[in-house]
Amino acid sequence: MMKILTIIVSYNFEKWISRCLNSLQASSHPTDIIVIDNCSKDRTVEIIKKEYPRVRLIANKANLGFGRANNIGMQIALKEGYDAVFLLNQDAWIGNDTLAALAEQSMRHPEFGILSPVHLNGSKSELDKGFASYAQLASTKDLTTSQEPIACPFINAAFWFIPVSTLHKVGGFSPLFYHYGEDKDYVNRLHFHQYKIGYLPTVYGCHDREFRKVSFEGFCRAERVYLLSEYANINYRFTQAFAYGILAGIKKLILSLSKGNLKYAKGYISIVATLLVQSKAVIQVRKQTKQNYANYL
Fold this sequence. Notes:
By secondary structure, this protein is of the alpha/beta class. It has 11 helices and 9 strands.
């Protein structure tokens, strides 16, 4: 039986603690659990210490971001001889047989560096909107009954089952990304190292997130993260990456100016300037992540 470490990065986790942790404790395949708390302002740490004494807790003194915090858990998994890690969002929970199926299919299909269950919404009534888009599914009616994994170009990191063989070859999350974009960058690196990412259509996890109207600040953050992920994408030659990252941002800046949209033009000026400042770090990360090594772990 695979030895699995479930890693949960938390920040103000109180709302979801019982659903998330109880689902793991009810799993038909046992898993050890580590919560890496990014300096929550609510009762997260107190509740875990009091009500979940078997859950390992690391209470950070500052918010390290999603990637760095997960890397701490991955380092522990490698050091302590786990066979796989399961990255689980704090606002998510799984079905009883989800981990068992992921472990079984991961052993049967080593070509998949990451496996995920189907992502449902928080009410379990329909597919999570983001997952539906990645998997090109309109609804749960489109799911097959096959036990075999189905490959996708990308699946967000709400439920990632990663065998340690992937960690040894691909490593952990890149320090270029603080919060958002870490998973996109990781999947780009996964493909470079000849792995697939996919989901199992017969098991599920619920992701309790709402899709809200995106603010201007949120739009700029998403654009910056996307262009940075293109700039850092090691599946491109550097000239291609520069074009898809920097030059694409400049093109959007010019387009905004041509439409008289000064607000968005200023946003793209800031984005492009930030990416240019990061160029030295991007070049170093691109070089480093091409190596078959447990980078950042």
